[in-house]
Design brief:
The protein contains six helices and 14 strands. The chain has about 280 residues and is α/β, with parallel strands linked by helices.
């Protein structure tokens, strides 16, 4: 794991630091096949600004990026989830064509109720394989359901990550970001101007490599405080993790990173110097 520290400290004041972590060789190896459930929102709000067309194009790009060892399911929902295959299905030309035809037949209608769709996706968890739930939605659900969704995300089974793809320019970014990060995943947002195929390939590249979970940072001897975020998200390949904070004590310090990768503990330390005076940044 790569660690970079940028600092700023004016005379007579406590310093500021920005610590950036990037995935190293331990996260650069693709895992075996994975399972995917694509949850596509087809509620009435998805008819605006071509959101449903964007969503269908994005799922199709994901399908093109799947590997031959992967399995997948496609679920559409408004208030009630509709399962296309009803089981995890191997990736091949026939299954991808079937999914494309199913997606192309969808029409936007009804209200948005996310909870039953997420609960359905959880049931696809196979104890031998990680499950990636990819939610494509504008997040325009009723406010009363949002609390239930956050609680449901916190109860996600082991081995399940939820990734949210916000569709369109009018999207509930805070909710989708909270859902993804709460379930150890990532959030991305696409609009009509985006390259769907490129977005899908970049997203899948992150999903196909192991993530560093339970990440903890210790900056010994520096007396750090006001660290943000307080709870660190998982570290994914191609998605740097940034930590901001302040330090009271300049001088030599040791940064120690600990995490688990595929259930195995990982720890790495690097020596840094926090300057007594540095007002360049």
């Amino acid at each position: 794991t790569g660690i970079d520290v940028v600092t700023s400290r004016k005379n007579g004041e406590d310093g500021y630091f920005l610590l950036t972590m990037t995935a190293g060789p331990e996260l650069d190896t693709e895992t075996g096949g994975m399972d995917y459930v694509f949850l596509m929102d087809i509620s009435g709000s998805m008819s605006a600004q071509g959101k449903l067309v964007q969503s269908v194009s994005t799922v199709q790009s994901f399908l093109d990026a799947l590997g031959e060892r992967d399995r997948f399911e496609v679920v559409t929902f408004s208030s009630v989830p509709d399962l296309h295959f009803g089981t995890m299905t191997e990736v091949n030309d026939a299954s991808k064509k079937s999914a494309r035809d199913y997606l192309a037949s969808q029409k936007a209608r009804g209200g948005t109720v996310l909870r039953p769709a997420l609960q359905t996706a959880y049931k696809y968890r196979d104890s031998d394989r990680p499950l990636n739930v990819v939610l494509l939605s504008d997040g325009m659900t009723e406010f009363g359901e949002q609390t239930e969704l956050v609680r449901l995300i916190e109860q996600a089974p082991d081995g399940v990550r939820v990734f949210c793809v916000g569709i369109g320019n009018e999207v509930n970014r805070p909710l989708l970001k909270q859902l993804a990060e709460g379930a150890g995943g990532l959030a991305a947002f696409v609009s009509q101007e985006d390259d769907f195929e490129r977005q899908a390939q970049l997203f899948r590249r992150k999903l196909m490599r192991p993530a560093a979970a339970e990440v903890k940072i210790d900056l010994a001897d520096a007396e750090i405080y006001d660290v943000t975020p307080r709870e660190l998200p998982d570290l994914f390949y191609g998605a740097p993790l940034r930590i901001y904070g302040r330090y009271r004590k300049p001088g030599a310090a040791k940064v120690t990173v600990s995490a688990t990768i595929q259930g195995q503990p990982m720890q790495q330390s690097v020596d840094v110097v926090l300057p007594e005076l540095n007002d360049d940044n």
